[in-house]
Amino acid sequence: MEKFEYKGKRYIKIKQDWYSEIGEKQPLKLAVELDSEFSKSLLEKEESVKNLLDQSAYFINTGIIQKAFDFAQEALRMAILQKDINVMPVVIVKNVDIFRELKRYPEGVELIFDMRRKYPELSVNPYIETALAALYCDLKQGEDALVSADLATEYFRLAKKKLSDECLIVWNRIKSDYATLYQQYRLSKTRSISES
């Protein structure tokens, strides 16, 4: 439940609906206006990238994807302004997750490549590479998905980290959706190991 003051009146938000102080449900036109103003006020209050990401996660969990997207985009803008390279992978992956939720896969790919051009050190991040592999799976680009999943796996190994759950999910998608391609990949890996 959220309380919000707008044009001198107090409103209460419960899930996706708006009510007056005395509990009257507000008409759709006013509810849309209240949603918009409420989101703006939250954006103005939020000061850190982490808080913006938390708000984005909250809106994803409540099914308000457009609001989640707004907060994720603001987090990205803030991370860029602050040149906070440490938080960028988390922010990029969150934005990609929302692009995927909205089925705007090419925009997710474009975001990753754009951020890598601006910040080359992001090119070896296993979480970003995993997000790219997931986008390629969504786009039905099996070979690209396989290449990115393989790179993500290598980047996790180099960082001495175990594979993320997301990376394991991508591998399972590749294995089931592109079985022949996956088998060829496994054979080539087995050969290269036996030759070394």
**How many distinct domains?**
3
Helix content: 55-70%
Total of DSSP H or I helical runs spanning 4+ residues = 9
Gross morphology: elongated
Proportion of strand residues: 5-15%
- Main pleated-sheet profile: 3 strands, antiparallel
Distance between the termini: 61 Å
User: SSE string, helix = H, strand = E?
Assistant: EEEHHHHHHHHH
Plain-language structure description:
The protein has helices spanning 28-45, 49-61, 65-81, 88-101, 105-118, 126-138, 142-158, 165-177, 179-195, and strands at residues 2-6, 9-14, 17-20. It is mostly helical. It has three domains: 1-45, no CATH class; 46-105, no CATH class; 125-196, no CATH class. The chain has a three-stranded antiparallel beta sheet, covered by helices on one side. The longest helix is centred in the first third of the chain and has 18 residues, at 28-45. The protein is elongated and about 75 Å long. The model has no long low-confidence stretch (mean pLDDT 89).
How do the strands and helices of this protein lay out in sequence?
Elements lengths: L1 E5 L2 E6 L2 E4 L7 H18 L3 H13 L3 H17 L6 H14 L3 H14 L7 H13 L3 H17 L6 H13 L1 H17 L1
Antiparallel strand pairs: 1-2, 2-3
Describe this protein with a few key phrases.
single chain; 196 residues; mainly alpha; 3 domains; three-stranded antiparallel beta sheet; 3 strands
